[in-house]
UniProtKB/TrEMBL annotation:
Presence of keyword Repeat: yes
InterPro entries the record matches: C1-like_sf (IPR046349), DC1 (IPR004146)
The keyword Cell inner membrane appears for this protein: no
Keyword tags: Repeat
Protein name from the UniProt record: DC1 domain-containing protein
Species whose genome carries this gene: Solanum commersonii
DC1 domain span: 11-57, 67-112, 125-170
Origin superkingdom: Eukaryota
Length: 280
């Protein structure tokens, strides 16, 4: 088990060391690395009120990834003079740290690099594992929400069967049913409402900060059995799942990636009720 250092020196804040800190009185904070909000434990500079997510503070400067196998990816800070860049995986804007291949112009959020290469889903469990792939075919629809797959974003796919699921639709619970022969099976959930609301996530305008357009919350696990429902006082989190992770959708990206990665490690089949596994 890797020990988490209690004090670090980070290139985004060279003035002072950062100390691992868990603030229970003021748990909300803005990560100055990726420019998204966090809760609870962070690396903190008491002199400057500077904060970094644990992952942003400890992720390696150079990585190799199946997402871009030809070249290594280097951790870089956003260059405001170079204009806006989007993550090649989720299409969300990059507002802080990112991994970049200068040769190819490939960019990816640090958290998106943690998406697993393969996973299993209940709608395709008797066939093949799904692999995270870039979009290649236009006009593809998601097997869970039946929405169009954004041709610019990646999705989990069985290329042999041409079976696709949005990254954001992976944890959504499918409907358990029985065929006329008494065989238990799963089918996609009922048609999802045009607007989805995520239990436990405040409105994107709930926090002050430099921008409300690409800030996702950190360390809050989504309530998957209630992943899609009409607004009941919890605040709108995003528009419908069409694979578009820019803007408000990126507010839940960290939680989504964390849950998917944890589920894969624990050999979870997605598409069923995973709430007992995650403890909610």
């Amino acid at each position: 088990m890797t020990l988490i250092p209690t004090t670090i020196q980070h290139f985004t804040h060279k003035q002072h060391p950062l100390i691992l800190h868990d603030d229970t009185i003021n748990p909300k904070y803005l990560c100055e690395g990726c420019m998204t909000y966090g809760f609870g434990t962070r690396y903190h500079c008491h002199a400057c009120t500077f904060n970094l997510h644990e992952y942003c503070a400890t992720c390696p400067r150079i990585i190799r990834s199946f997402m871009h196998p030809n070249h290594p990816l280097r951790l870089v800070e956003r260059d405001h003079l170079s204009g806006d860049r989007a993550c090649n995986i989720c299409c969300g804007l990059i507002e802080g740290l990112s991994y970049r291949c200068e040769l190819c112009g490939f960019d990816v959020h640090p958290i998106c690099t943690q998406l697993p290469e393969t996973l299993k889903h209940i709608l395709h469990q008797r066939h093949h594992p799904l692999r995270l792939l870039s979009s290649v075919d236009p006009g593809i629809t998601c097997a869970v929400c039946r929405g169009a797959c954004n041709p610019s974003s990646w999705r989990y796919r069985c290329a042999l069967c041409k079976f696709d699921i949005h990254i954001g639709c992976v944890p959504i619970q499918c409907q358990n049913t029985t065929t006329h022969r008494g065989i238990r099976t799963y089918i996609p959930p009922p048609i999802l409402p045009q607007q989805h609301y995520f239990v436990g996530y405040p409105s994107p305008n709930h926090f002050p900060g430099p921008s409300n357009m690409n800030h996702y919350n950190y360390n809050i696990m989504p309530q998957y059995p209630q992943l899609y429902q009409q607004n009941q006082g919890h605040g709108q989190a995003q528009t419908h799942y069409s694979g578009n992770y820019g803007g408000r959708t990126s507010q839940v990206m960290f939680n989504l990636v964390k849950a998917i990665a944890t589920g894969v490690i624990s050999n979870v089949i997605f598409g069923v009720d995973v709430s007992p596994f995650f403890g909610f």
